Amino acid sequence: MNANDIEAVSTWLSSRMPGFQPIEKIKKFSGGQSNPTYRITCGDTTYVLRRKPPGMLLKSAHAVDREFRVQRALAGSGVPVARVHVLCEDDSVIGSAFYIMDEVPGRAFDDPRLPNLSATQRADIMDEMSRVLAAIHAVDLNETGLSNYGPPGNYLQRQLDRWAKQYRATQTEDLPDMTTLINWLRAHMPADDNQRTLVHGDYRLDNLLFDPNSSKCVAVLDWELSTIGHPFADLASVIMQWQMPPGREGRGLAGVDRAALGLWSDQRFVDSYCRRRGLKHIENFNFYLAFCYFRMGAILQGVKKRALDGNAADPERGLKLGAHVPEFVRQGLKAAKGTV
User: Fold this and answer.
1) What is the phi/psi pair of residue 35, to 5°?
2) Which of 102, 135, 163 is at the close of a domain?
3) Contact 202, 241 (CB under 8 A)
4) Whole-angstrom distance between the N-terminal and C-terminal Cα of the chain?
5) Fewer Cβ atoms within 10 Å of its own Cβ: the N or the C terminal residue of the chain?
6) Which residues are in the Aminoglycoside phosphotransferase domain (predicted)?
7) 91-136 tens-digit pLDDT
8) Segment 271-313, tens digit of pLDDT
9) DSSP for 278-313?
10) 144 and 280 in a common domain
11) Are strands 98-102 and 227-229 parallel, antiparallel or unpaired?
């Protein structure tokens, strides 16, 4: 954001946020590959601004309006979210839609190995992840005004169709295994079991903020992919992430001695989640896992395309992430065969 953008945001907010003071400083957060995010300092108060990226975007992508809506609806619920203030859908202000929310003080963990924590603290963080995920799926859609937050019909089928289309729209090279994975998912789609809950769409450790002095989650972030859908897709996305290699790129737990570190096994996390939701077990879990690998591969393909087009939040990192698309597809096919 340039000086003109900052002035335009200040002017726009001055008449829409009571007590708003002019922006003194703005700093872009590093990391994310979707909606550019900034800390803005206004006197002794700091806020967070999230905006759509500039340039040509895929239809329905980067939905900051949906992020704003769901966080506003969840205020005061059992799901911790940042307080949102105003949404600007007028592209003439800074070139794309944006919204303002409070900055929530808290700890962010990029590495699920949770270095510098004790074994007990690591287990507590995983337990809190399970609790919050179950809380998201327990949200009363009618009470929160979210009953129409997603279209009716089979969520998994709808998501498969959507992301297959998005993948084709951003494809930069031929990847036959992706076609194989898409065809397998189409052929093995579970019958609709009528589970219809709020889903986050990208639930993982680094999208959560924790209290500085405890394992309590103080905010769930990055609601761009949220909708009404099937809760097992959210659960499988956690397991998918943990099955990736450890380190900055994979951010997973593959090959890690979890027991020695106090980290839960995949099965323990699934069992904890099921217990909280009153479920005995989950059938065909490998389908949901394969689906999540497919969807993440399609998402990262979009990140790569935006990086090549020059409108990614962090082009260099976007290209690095995009290089992992074949690996996600490979893991998806392994999950499909039940060999993960």
Assistant:
1) -90, 120
2) 102
3) no
4) 43
5) C
6) 26-249
7) 899 988 999 999 999 999 999 999 999 999 999 999 999 999 999 9
8) 999 999 999 999 999 999 999 999 999 999 998 998 888 876 6
9) T-S--TTHHHHHHHHHHHHHHHHHHHHHHHHHT-SS
10) yes
11) unpaired
